[in-house]
Amino acid sequence: MLQGFSGSIWHAFCLLIPFAIVTYVSLLFYFKGDWYFFDPKDNVDPKLKDAGTFEPHCKRYHDLSKFAITLSGAAMAFLVSTIASDKPTLPEFAQKVRNIAPILFGFFGCCIAFLVLFMVLQTFWYEEYCHSPDHNSYKRWKFALNNTFGWVGMFAFALGFCWLATLFR
User: Fold this and answer.
1) Of the chain's two ends, which shows fewer C-beta atoms within 10 Å, N or C?
2) Cα–Cα dist 16/73, whole Å
3) pTM (predicted TM-score)
4) CA dist 35 → 12, 38, 82, 143 (Å)
């Protein structure tokens, strides 16, 4: 079943775009408020007056994103090296890889693209937030969009490796 669906890079988009739309709309309407605080210490709640900044969390998010990007790039290199062969007849495993390579390139490529967007926008919007006098620049739509990029990137990463695991059954 999966081999017939794996023949095009566009099939990855057919799975990721609905997930992205549902994630964005869910985040946009689930959380209330016009803007969000990156730093808990900027909240007016007196219990949070001694809270820290967002920077340690941002570092963890970026490190996780960089890890997923690195593994996705390595998986793409594995795919290329497996299907680029000078042999007139490919081994059975290489033929299986060739059959599902298009959708895997879609998943891993989307993972890289979405996670790079996630990191860039998070950094840009955090800098904008830090220099905003009222700390109200991180609007709800920015929160939803940035989190959607992060979740879709990680979903594409997981889906790509799950799809790749079907070769070994």
Assistant:
1) C
2) 18
3) 0.87
4) 33, 10, 48, 8
